[in-house]
Amino acid sequence: MSLDDTLERLPLKTFTEKAYLDYSMYVILDRALPHLADGLKPVQRRIIYAMSELGLAAGNKPKKSARTVGDVIGKFHPHGDSACYEAMVLMAQDFAYRYPLVEGQGNWGSADDPKSFAAMRYTESRLSRFANILLAELGLGTVDFAPNFDGTLEEPTLMPARLPHLLLNGGHGIAVGMSTDIPPHNLREVVAAVLHLLKHPDATLEALCRLLPAPDFPTGCDIITPREELLAMYRSGNGSVRARARYEVEDGDIIITVLPYQVSGARVLEQIAAQMQAKKLPWLEDLRDESDHESPTRLVLVPRSKRIDVEALMGHLFATTELEKSYRVNINCIGLNGRPGVRGLRELLAEWLEFRIVTVRRRLAHRLQRVQDRLHILEGLLIAFLNIDEVIAIIRNEDHPKAALMERFALSDIQAEAILEIKLRHLARLEETRITGERDALAAERQELQDVLGSDERLRALVGDEIRADGKLYDDPRRCLLVQRGAARALAEADITPSEPVTVVLSAHGWVRLAKSHDIDAQGLGYRSGDSYLAAARGRSNQQTVFLDSNGRAYALPASSLPTARGHGEPLSGRLTLEEGARLLHVLLGEPDERVLLASDAGYGFVTPLESLISRQRAGKALLSLPPGAVPLAPLRLDSSNGLRLACVSSTGRLVVFAASELPEMPRGKGVKLIGIPSKLVASGEEKLLAVAALPAGAALKVVAGARHLTLKGSDLDAYGASRAARGKPLPRGFARVRGLEVES
Predict the structure, then answer these.
(1) Of the residues 20, 23, 26, 122, which is catalytic?
(2) Which tens digit of pLDDT belongs to each residue from 62-91?
(3) Is the dihedral of CA 462, 467, 470, 472 positive or negative?
(4) 122 catalytically annotated
């Protein structure tokens, strides 16, 4: 036979598919996902079993963690020692596990830095008292054992968990093509839900969620997820839980006392400090970390003033830092059928109860067999005591006493062997009395076991009694409070910036600066050589500064971010991206809901809210469409008073006054005609719209032409009244070349 005849040939596609599928199933079933029955991954199960075999029970003296890890990887789990030790550390950290399974001595990490634990050669460990819910019934025939990786030892395939450990401590893992994220829960609530389902197999999810309303993280926090979302999460097995830090106000300071699960206090302080350094959180003056042994979490935030709105400030911090955190929930585990799957709360509890009932039945059946075996031996011993002289004679005289005893008294091999192993001192009369008493007690126990095993009702009652007893033994209150809270909202920059009067000054070369006052002579400021004053706008420091260029595009920058007026400022070309050939013409500050008139010198315009001019893009936004050769006029802020009129004057001295309500409100565009200037005059440049003024009711209009001025009010002003787009009336002689319009109250 040639070598080729012994080789199995497979297409590469078939081989790779099978190899990858085998690897995937190994990762899913033997590494990443916990089992529904005991809530453990294989490495966790092997650590606990190895520690129990080493005698590291809760009341015993701890041993070096390196000893435990050595036994685990040498006997049951042939993988890396560091990964095994990290899994062991996780089960010992009370800030990571709701009910730790390992009790450690030494440095086992901290909530701020969970990975800061000492090496395994320095720490000692033993099982916690809570681990008994997994180990108490291990040697009672409750679960199957399988050979270890080299076939020299046996290990349990599952732990006989007396409570649904999967929900109590949760679990996280990433497999191939799937993952799991199961949050921890409170034991008292889990027990209540299990007992309710045991008593009422048809119980609805709503009834179970009244007893088990939400997860319960080990570090405590406020769970703000609405109950409807929690119910949907427990129904499908998928969803999310939102947790928020807890704080209190003490002598004007904000004290954060509880952080969300897996959130570092140092990290939170870094996030808040970064906002303070960026001048995005002027409400806070100082931060302190006063955490110590007595107060594990005590982060102190010092406001600048006692007038600060604490709820608004904390709402901002909840939205911008890890003081509020969302946790993904994906209840994916390996079921009793050996297959992974996502389960809702009701399905999970029902399947675990099925496992628990089978486990208790196996334990009782195992005990019944032990009782029957012992009764069988005791019956043989009693026969021997009733015929002690004959038994002694047979033993002394027969060459094969065992066979002779079996033939004479109709004994089994086990009974005969037990008789032969009786010590002489046990032949006393009191020993017969003890055996009789033991037989009667075991007979009663056998009858009780048979009755329980023969009745599903009594078996379920026993399971419920045991779950109730364990619940009382390990009972503790809920740590996470369920509170009704709205979604956190980050404060707008305008809300957290101090509101101070400021003046923004724009130069002809596009340099900008900010003066903290309205009483400033913008034209009298110093400018760089060759540069000069172009425009200025007054407003507040917490408002957006809007710039309008010659192409009708609008740009916006926070006023508080502009350089001060102590120098020449800085060029806007470093912050904004203008189109080729465009130049900045106008600047404006105001509230987002203010109405603004945008117009071009071609005689067109429209009204829009100021927020339509605000853009966060460097390139701004197209706002005012311009006919060829036209340029924008300065934006005009309009108040909301009744009777507001607009006065439009052309470069040839024609004036028209009409009601502001005639103008449409638009987000962008060319607008409508304001004054009826013929198109050919606009195209040739002979006549343009020169200025627009907003006239409140009763106000006067001042027309300025060179050194002369004309004040129009009352009937004189009404004489120029017309509808929008009218040609307008010429101003008196000498005002053909108007320089501007001013409004006088």
Answers:
(1) 122
(2) 999 999 999 999 999 999 999 999 999 999
(3) negative
(4) yes
